[in-house]
């Protein structure tokens, strides 16, 4: 019961006290009392119709408040004009007659309407003031006109001042709403980007590694079941083991990237090089040029994937050759290059290493796409002297 009363009280008070249902109810009752009892003599029937019509029209605002400006605005204008007509002939010797009070209240409410232009407010109030002055003149009582006109101007200025305050509040609320929508859209875009990032990581790790692993296992099964070739099957099983191991390494790297648990770029490159020295017995030199600085985690992952693929290709196509990994920090770019000698085939021609390694599952196309996603570029091909194969990736940084 208490909660119901509290909710009813909140509805009556509303968010805007000046436009709350309680305020309008109290104001409507006071104006009704003003209509019925604020007169010093008998009121002609036609005057009851005019001023009573003004109050009846004012009830439209009392019912709707500021919720229906297209209906409330003409109602307030009509109320002002009818009340101004009734000011002069109203049977009351005081300067604060019932029509004058109705006129002041209506002007104060009309002047603070944010849905009405300032020009329309000034024009309508000026017209109501002229009608009130003419009404007093026709009634033959011009002596009482100065005070109502002065108060009318004061009420108008107060209403306009309140209107500016309400406009600022309305603009602030709109700005807050736009900010909330922008934050919501930003969060949604960030979530979509993160989903795309997870999809790329899972595709790179699972689609390629598991696909190649499946092929090797199918070949091994065929060799055993159809030909009984144990030696060939063992060869493919060893390749499958290497694929599974490399895939596990890729998966761990993907999880680290998704968790943004990525070390600084120079440290990560040195760790990668050290791993190839230890696990593959490669001769790899790591050079860092420029002042190291923080780089975005997605750019770090792209460069590390490029370096890993290039080192894997070098180990496969140039076994035993010295490999150089160079990391350079330029003012606006970060460059990573992997250089290894081109091994000559038996025919005597240069055989550049292939861009796609069977075990890594991440070829030249995949490298270029990943680097492009972070706004970078990738190139691969023979060096200037034609003796080395160079893979170079540049990303903003």
From TrEMBL:
Domain of life of the native organism: Bacteria
One GO cellular component term: membrane
Signal peptide boundaries: none
Segments crossing the lipid bilayer: 21-39, 45-64, 71-90, 96-115, 120-139, 145-161
Listed EC numbers: 2.7.13.3
Signal transduction histidine kinase subgroup 3 dimerisation and phosphoacceptor domain residues: 194-261
Protein keywords: ATP-binding, Kinase, Membrane, Nucleotide-binding, Phosphoprotein, Transferase, Transmembrane, Transmembrane helix, Two-component regulatory system
Claim: Transmembrane helix is one of the keywords in the record: yes
One Pfam family linked to the record: HATPase_c
Protein name according to UniProt: histidine kinase
């Amino acid at each position: 019961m208490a909660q119901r009363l509290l909710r009813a009280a909140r509805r009556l008070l509303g968010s805007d006290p000046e436009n709350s249902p309680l305020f309008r109810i109290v104001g409507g009752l006071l104006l009704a009392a003003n209509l019925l009892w604020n007169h010093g003599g008998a009121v002609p029937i036609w005057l009851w119709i005019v001023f009573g019509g003004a109050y009846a029209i004012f009830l439209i605002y009392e019912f709707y408040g500021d919720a229906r400006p297209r209906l409330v605005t003409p109602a307030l204008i009509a109320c002002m004009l009818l009340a101004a007509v009734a000011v002069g002939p109203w049977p009351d010797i005081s300067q604060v007659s019932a029509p004058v009070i109705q006129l002041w209240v209506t002007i104060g409410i009309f002047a603070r309407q944010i849905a009405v232009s300032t020009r329309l407010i000034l024009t309508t109030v000026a017209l109501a003031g002229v009608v009130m002055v003419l009404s007093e003149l026709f009634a033959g009582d011009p002596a009482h006109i100065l005070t109502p006109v002065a108060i009318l101007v004061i009420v108008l200025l107060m209403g306009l001042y309140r209107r500016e305050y309400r406009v600022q509040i309305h603009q602030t609320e709109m700005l807050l709403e736009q900010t909330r929508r922008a934050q919501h859209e930003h969060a949604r875009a960030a979530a979509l980007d993160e989903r795309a990032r997870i999809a790329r990581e899972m595709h790179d790790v699972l689609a390629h590694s598991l696909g190649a692993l499946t092929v090797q296992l199918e070949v091994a099964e065929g060799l055993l079941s159809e030909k009984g070739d144990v030696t060939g099957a063992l060869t493919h099983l060893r390749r499958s083991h290497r694929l599974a191991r490399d895939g596990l390494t890729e998966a761990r790297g993907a999880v680290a990237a998704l968790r943004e648990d990525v070390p600084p770029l120079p440290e990560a490159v040195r760790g990668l090089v050290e791993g190839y020295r230890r696990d593959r017995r490669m001769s790899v030199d790591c050079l860092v040029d420029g002042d190291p600085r923080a780089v975005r985690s997605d750019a770090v992952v792209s460069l590390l994937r490029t370096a890993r693929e290039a080192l894997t290709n070098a180990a496969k196509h140039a076994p035993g050759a010295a490999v150089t990994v160079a990391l350079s920090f330029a003012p606006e770019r970060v460059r990573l290059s992997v250089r290894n000698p081109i091994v000559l085939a038996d025919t005597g021609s240069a055989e550049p290493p292939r861009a796609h390694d069977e075990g890594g599952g991440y070829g030249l196309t995949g490298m270029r796409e990943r680097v492009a996603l972070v706004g970078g570029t990738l190139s691969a091909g023979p060096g200037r002297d034609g003796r080395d194969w160079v893979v170079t990736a540049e990303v903003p940084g």
